[in-house]
Write a structure and sequence with these properties.
Elements (H helix, E strand, L loop, with lengths): L1 H22 L98 E7 L8 E10 L5 E13 L5 E9 L2 E2 L7 E6 L8 E9 L5 E11 L7 E4 L5 E8 L5
Antiparallel strand pairs: 1-10, 2-8, 3-7, 3-9, 3-10, 4-5, 4-6, 4-8
Length: 257
């Protein structure tokens, strides 16, 4: 029954279409056939894809953003534990013996050293107390053991020395000898006392001293003598009086002038 109804609808529609074509009525296709539904048409063929569109214009650079805040400083990390001591390596092989170096030049003489300390000084003193009224001759001898031939001897004679001449001027000379000879390195060790015409009789304590070089080592006789001054005759002389007299002798490690 359904198939019969369908055929009836199709047939009625065909008649209406043919009538519309013959009458040239443009609205004849809007005439509906009551009770009949149209048949779906056949799907058309899909169209082709369109051509790709053109690239758009490049946009401008955006504004630079504001500088962000600086981040907080991170916490300092903990120091790691000290590593254990590594094992001692084995001893390497002995190297090849080097060639003998060139012999250096002989160095020059070094600077002169300082004087020795007090405990290295060889010294002696001879002391007496007497009145000696000799006008010329030996006053006192003091034997000294000199250790080195390159050293110098310092000798000092201290005593009361006076000359007396109430009617004219007078002069007395006191001097040191070494083994009977006066010093020649560099000069003699001596002292003089001079008085003009006077009746004064001054007994005054005086001292003469000096260094003498070029004296050999060994036992040395150091002596004090009294005598005439140069271009002067004899006079009344006195040594010692009632005061203490002494000869002091020192050996110095280095020669001095």
């Amino acid at each position: 029954m359904f198939a019969s109804s369908t055929l009836q609808c199709l047939f009625a529609a065909l008649i209406l279409f043919l009538n519309g074509v013959e009458s040239n009525n443009p609205k004849s296709d809007q005439v509906s056939v009551g009770g009949c539904s149209g048949v779906p048409g056949i799907p058309g063929t899909p169209g082709h894809n369109g051509l790709p569109g053109r690239d758009g214009l490049k946009g401008g650079d955006g504004m630079k953003g504001a500088k962000g805040d600086r981040g907080d400083k991170g916490a300092t990390g903990k120091t790691g534990p000290k590593g254990s001591l590594g094992q001692r390596g084995s001893m390497g092989p002995i190297g090849i013996k080097g060639e003998k170096g060139i012999k250096g030049n002989v160095g020059g003489p070094g600077p002169q050293g300082e004087n020795g300390t007090a405990n290295s000084i060889n010294w002696k003193q001879c002391v007496w107390k007497r009145s000696d009224e000799k006008d010329t001759g030996l006053i006192q001898e003091c034997v000294f053991n000199k250790r080195h031939s390159s050293t110098a001897l310092k000798v000092a004679y201290a005593a009361s020395m006076r000359v007396y001449c109430p009617d004219s001027s007078c002069c007395g000379r006191w001097y040191i000898t070494f083994n009977g000879a006066e010093c020649s390195g560099p000069m003699t060790i001596e002292g003089i006392v001079y008085m003009a015409n006077s009746k004064d009789n001054p007994h005054r304590h005086r001292q003469i001293e000096g260094f003498c070089e070029n004296i050999p080592s060994g036992s040395i006789s150091v002596a004090v003598h009294v005598g005439n001054c140069q271009s002067s005759g004899s006079s009344d002389r006195h040594s010692g009086s009632t005061s203490v007299s002494r000869i002091m002798i020192e050996e110095y490690p280095h020669s001095q002038t």
